[in-house]
Write a structure and sequence with these properties.
globular; 43% strand; disordered N terminus; 368 residues; Methylamine Dehydrogenase, Chain H
């Protein structure tokens, strides 16, 4: 069995899980299954294997987007992948007009517009705008310049887009409205890496995060927290509730280990002065995304349980602790890589793939 890395897109191009897992099985339409907590598998269009969905966003019950990569084979890059939900069906969109191979790793949007970011096969950052029917390439400062990367995107209450990444001047946050884009002042730490993601809060504060940087931009200046640390860490999500109540998700490979060793789950909490580890319902695997409850409080976390790979392992906040919530049992491994709430309508979209290795016949996997 191959013990090779599946690009997860959770920490930049080339990051992966390095895990051995059960075979993904033959490609084809999955059977719709119901999970014990209301989660169900949703039919997804067949894509060129190996295929994965890395980002998902919902504007309303009848409008959502998912992005990723298809046709990857080991270290050989595939091509960007994008799906659209119309209220009844996920449809695979034609992206051949973009003219580049590579991947898309993050998407965000509202009923008025959406944005996606990724990179081409050469590592050049790409920014896409939704025109109502498909994705079109958009310009931004530093486009195609060496050292420019775009890693995550979110949309604020005013409809403006915030993008995490890095340019040659050390800025890690890009803001735009579709007409103009501006890189914000670099954070004091002068990090040399691009943060893995971005989150905007209802009050307008914008956070960027990674294992080496967790920082808040208030529109004028940066406030940095102590880095969460770890031996070989990857940070996949951040949920600031208040200044002394912040949740962080991810995974960490720790020290050494044999080929195929799983990472350990990372779940940390900031109490206003320091990070502390929180024991999750499972420990071998990863946590890939976290969403709030619509009021700014914690709600759901998407996860992958190494010892029970044929069901997604979600965590639900019960008001005092994170408790297990399982997806439906599948005939393949289920690796959720992104999670989004559906505004107004309630519910969630969870997207990912059916293998931890970037080889055919891995296919996309979607749950609701």
């Amino acid at each position: 069995m191959r013990r090779r890395r599946f690009i997860s897109g959770l920490a930049g191009a080339g990051a992966g899980l390095g895990l051995a897992s059960a075979s993904a099985g033959a490609a084809g339409p999955p059977a719709v299954a119901q999970g014990p907590h209301g989660w169900q598998e949703v039919l997804a269009p067949e894509c060129s294997p190996a295929a994965q969905l890395i980002g998902v966003a919902a504007a309303r019950a009848d409008l959502a987007w998912a992005v990723g990569e298809e046709g990857r084979n080991g270290s050989t890059r595939g091509k960007p992948l994008a799906l659209r939900w119309d209220g009844s069906t996920w449809t695979r969109l034609d992206l051949t007009h973009l003219g580049f191979g590579g991947y898309l790793r993050s998407v965000a949007g509202t009923s008025d517009g959406a944005w996606a970011v990724g990179a081409d096969a050469a590592g050049t950052a790409r920014l896409l705008a939704w025109d109502g029917s498909t994705w079109q390439e958009a310009g931004f400062p530093g486009r195609a310049a060496p050292g420019t990367a775009l890693t995550g995107v979110t949309v604020g209450a005013d409809g403006g887009a915030w993008v995490s990444g890095r340019n040659s001047d050390g800025s890690v946050l890009l803001h735009g409205d579709g007409q103009s884009w501006t890189w914000q002042t670099p954070p004091p730490s002068a990090t040399t890496a691009a943060p893995s993601g971005v989150r905007v809060m209802a009050a307008g504060d914008v956070w960027v995060y990674d294992s080496a940087l967790v920082a808040r931009w208030d529109g004028e200046s940066w406030t940095e927290l102590t880095a969460p640390g770890g031996l070989r860490p990857t940070v996949t999500g951040l949920l600031p509730v208040t200044a002394d109540d912040i949740w962080l998700t991810g995974y960490d490979y720790g020290v050494g280990g044999p080929p195929g060793k799983p990472p350990g789950v990372t779940l940390k909490h900031w109490d206003g002065s320091a990070w502390s580890g929180v024991t999750a319902p499972f420990t071998a695997g990863l946590l890939s995304a976290i969403v709030d409850d619509g009021q700014g409080g914690p709600d759901r976390i998407a996860g992958w349980d190494f010892w029970d790979q044929t069901r997604a392992h979600y965590l639900r906040w019960d008001g005092a602790a994170w408790v297990s919530e399982r997806g439906p049992t599948a005939t393949t491994p289920v690796l959720p890589l992104a999670l989004a709430s559906v505004p107004g309508a309630g519910g969630y979209w969870s997207v990912g793939t059916t293998s931890s290795s970037p080889y055919p016949p891995a296919q996309v996997h979607i749950e609701q």
